[in-house]
Design goal:
The structure holds 2 protein chains of 2 kinds. By secondary structure, chain A is an all-alpha fold. Chain A has one domain: Orthogonal Bundle (Helix Hairpins). Chain A has 3 helices and no strands. In chain A, helix 1 packs antiparallel against helix 2 and helix 2 runs antiparallel to helix 3. Chain A starts with a helix and ends in a 13-residue tail after the last helix. Chain B starts with a helix and ends with a helix. Chain B contains 6 helices and no strands. Chain B folds into 2 domains: about 110 residues, NADH-ubiquinone/plastoquinone oxidoreductase chain 6, subunit NuoJ (Four Helix Bundle (Hemerythrin (Met), subunit A), Up-down Bundle); about 40 residues. Classes of the chains: A mainly alpha, B mainly alpha. The interface between A and B is large, with 74 and 83 residues.
């Protein structure tokens, strides 16, 4: 498979996440679509790391080039986990105050 | 088609189908379950690329911890009522068209570039193994690793402070 297939798969997953964020009104679903977008980017990073690894192996068979992509994915997962915990705490607090998870209702903060 | 190609297309269809069902499901609990299926498909892609460590970490962290956290919030707050109907149908169409335009623009921009023809090393390749990733992580990237532990501590404290009843 060429990198082309992975780029199209990741872009399709990312735009499905964008459609979910723009279309749905439930805050939980919007948050899940953000996680879907992060996963699309992770997949693309891993595919690019293997592409660079293949190019580097052609020059030198013991090269370890391309591991940076997978390390970056590891850190993206770290940040996503921290973000989810804080984001869900915020959602729970807003639900306790307003008893609603509708995004159009939760913009009351501006009043 | 070789077995690698077959697996790639099967996992692709599974991932895209599950992602579409995430945004089209009425019940939030169904959306969460479809997202877990999408994460398993993406982990399958990681295994196909021989990124074994990331495949397992993806399942443990994303499907196993983050999605379970979502399920806890939905079930404890009893949020699994059906979706509220759209106030304005045209906003829904505008959202779909915007996402579709993003897909089209990025696809068109990248369609004929030279890098697209590079092959991806599938099924073999040592950089995805935990030994090699661990060596790179703890030798070259030890500072971001330690800072991420501080990040986790601050996220934990922040979540507890926000969620406290007073």
């Amino acid at each position: 498979m060429t990198i082309q297939h992975y780029i199209f798969l990741a872009v399709a997953l990312f735009s499905i996440g964008v459609i979910g964020v723009l279309t749905r009104r439930n805050i939980i679903i919007i948050f899940m679509c953000i996680e879907l977008m992060l996963n699309a980017v992770n997949l693309l990073l891993v595919a690019f790391s293997k592409m660079h690894h293949l190019a580097a192996i052609a020059a030198d068979a013991t090269s370890k080039a391309g591991s940076e992509g997978q390390i970056f994915v590891f850190f993206i997962m770290v940040v996503a986990a921290a973000e989810v915990s804080v984001g869900l705490a915020i959602i729970v607090m807003m639900y306790r105050n307003t008893h609603s998870v509708d995004a159009n209702f939760l913009n009351r903060l501006k009043h | 088609m070789s077995i690698t190609h077959l697996l790639f297309w099967f996992l692709t269809v599974l991932a895209l189908g599950s992602a579409l069902m995430v945004i089209f499901s009425k019940n939030p609990v169904h959306s969460i379950l479809w997202l877990i299926a999408a994460f398993f498909a993406i982990s399958g892609h990681y295994v196909l690329l021989n990124a074994q460590f990331l495949a397992i970490v993806n399942i443990i962290v994303y499907a196993g911890a983050i999605m379970v956290l979502f399920l806890f919030v939905v079930m404890l707050m009893n949020l699994n009522s059906a979706a509220i109907p759209m106030k304005n149908k045209w906003l829904g169409f505008a959202g779909v068209i915007s996402g579709g335009c993003l897909l089209l623009v990025i696809t068109a921009a990248l369609k004929d570039t030279a890098v697209m023809r590079n092959d991806v090393l599938m099924k073999t390749g040592d950089i995805g193994l935990i030994h090699n990733l661990g060596m790179v992580l703890f030798k070259d990237y030890v500072l971001p690793f330690e800072i991420s532990s501080v990040l986790f501590l601050s996220a934990m404290v922040g979540a507890m402070v926000i969620g406290k009843k007073d």
